[in-house]
Design goal:
single chain; five-stranded antiparallel beta sheet; 20% helix; 1 helix; 84 residues; alpha+beta
């Protein structure tokens, strides 16, 4: 009998900071002492800043700084359109 199982393992990896990652609707910029999180949902969006390195997003898909910045600009445009 064959079955499919999912295994999760912890692996130590070397990363260069700042690191840019994403997971579905969240985009992250991570460095030694700050984490910026962009949330872009269908009906909701936000920006949050944490004064520490969030470790769990390190395992998400890496993106470029340009992709993060593009998402940030779009998000700021949405936020600014509601502040009038």
């Amino acid at each position: 009998m064959k079955v499919t199982i999912e295994r999760k393992e912890k692996v130590e990896v070397e990363v260069n900071l700042p690191l840019f990652t994403k997971d579905k609707h969240h985009y992250y910029m991570l460095n030694e002492n700050k984490s910026i999180v962009l949330f872009v949902g269908e009906d909701d969006y936000s920006i949050s800043v944490n004064n520490y390195l969030m470790k769990y997003p390190l395992s998400y898909d890496q993106i470029t700084e340009q992709e993060f910045n593009h998402t940030y600009i779009l998000l700021m445009s949405k936020l600014n359109s509601h502040v009038k």
